[in-house]
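Subject: Interface between my chains keeps coming out wrong

I've been trying for a while to get a sensible model of this assembly. When I model each chain on its own everything looks fine, but I need the whole thing in one frame so I can look at the contacts. Pasting all components below, labels as-is. Any help appreciated, I'm running out of ideas.
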Amino acid sequence: MQRAFALVDCNNFYVSCERLFQPRLEGRPVVILSNNDGIVVSRSQEVKDLGVRMGVPWFQLKDLAKRHGIIALSSNYTLYADISNRVMRLLSQYCPGQEIYSIDESFLDLTGIADLTCYAQAMRANIKRCVGIPVCVGIAPSKTLAKLANHVAKKQKQFHGVCEFNAMTARELDNLFAKIEVGEVWGVGRRSAERLQQMGINTVLELKYSPAKRVRAEFGVVMERIVAELNGETCIGLDEITPPRQQIICSRSFGLYVSLLEDLEQAVIAYTTRAAEKLRDQQSLAGGIQVYIRTNPHKESEPQYQPTTLLPLFEPTDDTRLLCRAALSGLRQIYRSGYAYQKAGVILTGIIPASARPRTLFEDTAAQQKSTSLMAALDRINRRMGSGTMQLLGEGVRKGWAMRRGSMSQRYTTEWDELAVAR
DNA sequence: TCTGGGGTCCTAGGACCC
DNA sequence: TCTGGGGTCCTAGGACCC
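Reply #2:
Try treating it as a single job with all components included. I did that and got this:
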């Protein structure tokens, strides 16, 4: 039986979330900005039609925004995560196999289901009705093709939001592929697209019929697999369970430049605290922590410095205090005065399951148990009373370095104080 | 003035072992 | 004078994704 993977992708996801609670945004050009209101991370159709690209710095758009009345909102991840959960839960009811691929995308295994287009249309209508988010669906025998089908469903109006490759002939598919640029393929990034074009491979069709050996020799196994998937061969399966993270990153740009060591220390403690929470959430321990700070790479006129250091831990831990102690010693090693730092970050590495904690010659079981119950209490309080209710003193209270979020909407669905009001 | 954050996988090269 | 071969593990860097 022919496999059938669906890729369901929410349209302009962050903008769509905001529109749910602010109907005035409907039909108007809207963008959502990254942390610090830095760059554009989501665009409404009206903004895409103005030619605004993804990832453009907001300050470069100010003029255009004024001319066309573009509304810019700070990103509200609490809201988006909650809406995402609702969409994903609803989708899970449509088939036994689901892989949640990102906050706004999900792969489904629809193999064996009859009349797929009709099925997908019903699913799409139901998500719109129950959650209010518009989605498009691509269906194909491989995940790479399903991504491409989704792209077609979004771009070509005649498909009405659902494009099923399984229902098309080889000739129809090839005609379609001849008109799509190779860079649109999942896994073909800017670099590879440039190199492919130099080799005379410009369209999806040309990549599909490229000799496997040549692709393998020039680009390696990843691209070879992409070509096989374009030919309808299922190489990449559905990942239904998310494995624990192998590294946990917490990094932020500052709201303003930071030069003092004590400000960096506060930030590093705050980020390490957050990373440690994520670590305990997935019941893991970290064997090391990497710390980095950096000046603004875009400001070439200013002196640049972007040191990083990796601190191995004496033994794997999930204790915020131990992780912070290591992070701070790393920070003090790499810190140099006289630079305007723009960003800092920590990365937890060497992650193992908490159940696999190694025994050591020097272990202190009582101290270990104390640490575990202290961290558990900390997490419980912060979960119940709001994150940051209890924190290490070193994180500071003023937080002059914290990021800017000029125009953030309310957390309509997750905070009692911020619920939507009906008049 | 103002340019995000958090991940994965693959590959090459070095250290080390027998 | 002549200086092997094969394997594993780790790390850094690159490319990619959303």
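Reply #3:
Confirming on my end. Residues 33-39, 41, 55-60, 62, 75, 220-222, 245-253, 296-299, 342-343, 345, 403-404 of chain A lie near DNA strand B (CB under 10 Å from a C1').
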